[in-house]
Please model this.
Amino acid sequence: MSARARAVLGAAGLLLAFQGAAAACGICVEDKIAAVYDHAIVTQALGRKHHVAFFLIDGPLVPGAGMRRAIEALAGSAHGVDKGSVRVSVEAASLSVAFDPQRVPFATVHRELDRKLSSKKLSLLPTRVMDQTAGLRAIGRQ
Model:
């Protein structure tokens, strides 16, 4: 077998190994969204023509209610976030908030949340935005 063929087979094996690890993690984006989905919040937000944004949390998360409450307080104080709409799952590293897109654009809400959470060395990766007309939309596929 040539060196080139060995390299191609090695790369293919490496890709398969990583694919299997990713598929076996047990926590997909939908699971992370489900961990912070609150039907009452979504129904109320959509009824007022507000949107609900879902994020993955990146950074050092300490399991427990204290960390969850700290993130909820920081996110809840962010400009544009609907009062009482913040949901956090430290275990799933995810967060959701409702906001009024007529008052504050999504980009501003995201930037404000990132600014607030940076005090805990956390950042957010947007994954989905739920709105009345499109349902659950993937970020970047709009």
Observations:
- The two ends are 46 Å apart (CA to CA).
- Confidence is low (pLDDT under 50) at residues 5-24.
- The longest helix spans residues 3-23.
- The first strand starts at residue 51 and ends at 58.
